[in-house]
Specification:
The protein is an all-beta fold and 368 residues long. Helices cover 3% and strands 40% of the residues. A hairpin with a 7-residue loop joins β23 and β24 (311-315). The longest helix has 6 residues, at 2-7.
Length: 368
Amino acid sequence: ARFQQAMGGVPAWADRENRKKSNDEDDDLLCRTGNFISSSESLPRGILEMKSCLPANQERLADGRLSTVQFHPSAQVVLTAGFDRSVSLFEVDGIRNPKIQSIYLESFPIYKARFSADGEQVIATGTHHKVFYVYDMMGGSIIPVHQVRGKLEKLVKNFEVSPDGSFMLLTGTSGYLHLLSMKTKELISSMKINGRNAASAFTSDGSKIYSYSKEGEVFIWDVRSRKCLHKFEDEGSLEGKCIAISRNNQYVACGSVSGVVNLYSTDVCLKENRPKPVKAIMNLVTSATTVTFNPTTEILAVASNEADEAVKLVHIPSYTVFSNFPVFRRKKIYLTQSMDFSPRSGFFSIANNKGKALLYRLKHYSDF
């Protein structure tokens, strides 16, 4: 009802009566609703059964680089945003992927956009701006949020949203991290690491933050007390680039400028200053710029935005790469800017520099 009020009508993805009935077994899950998780067997290694679908944003391809793709936390919806200054929402049906709506932010090429944890807001930062925008999907309003009070950051670009919906973490300059209230968008506290901050990630319960410095160290913060609990060195890192924590809190993945992605057990990271990775993934030859776990912690996606087709999907716990992705004979991926898995791993999407959010149906998973 709230979407209806905001969107001026019932979007197709909310209208059960109008859902297309498809006999295709691949699309069966799209005719069902509900937050159940099927008791699926563990994902086999070697070959990943997948089907290439039309791009998620087929009805409105971006003009230029697409900086973000993200699935909605609860609805069958995907968000795209990019340098063409627009944020778009699409229903994911794997067939047409109809557009729900687009908003345009004037003179604001989008560096990153994210749903809030409850899926009711979209936060967007620009490439060269102090201000960031909050799009309230329920009220239909676009609210500019000006400089974090008391902190004079010249740019607000990189940020993370805590999975519990309480906080937003802004990456500042000179190693500063600014923790904001998600409700008011006001500054709660600032933390500082040694060196320059490259990337940060919240644990799935929102209790800790892992900050990866350009100097190759990872700092683990307690969100409640804002104290640094521990720090460790990422083995062999010349310069840190990206970090991700698995949903089950078992693994931390650190990607560096050399292209190596080190996969660690979180238990070891919390105790040792120089932990040994359980696996060093060496399949990328240019900087690892994006790392993402799927929700079941059975796949780790690693990618570089410095070479075409530089995406690998790693099977966990065998730590082997799926040999059938990407398909080298058919060049489609180009430079990967952002990646995401749908809430229960039924889909995987890659945003590229050509304005497309490529969409793949992962057949092992029966639910969206």
